[in-house]
Description:
Helix content: 25-40%
Amino acid sequence: MLEFEIKDMTCGHCASTITKAVQAIAPGAELDIRLDNHHVQINGAPDADAIETAIREAGYSPVRLS
Length: 66
């Protein structure tokens, strides 16, 4: 499991954009997005660096927690 804090993720549109970015490179990934604390947990995505890059390219600033 990967976990990121994404402080600039503030709404449902942000969550949708991040979901699409992650699933574009890891189609089987499952995301648990919590807007209240800006956390995203991702299961089924083997390459943490690629996921972090995809989120950055979508316009967000992820900080890897695990």
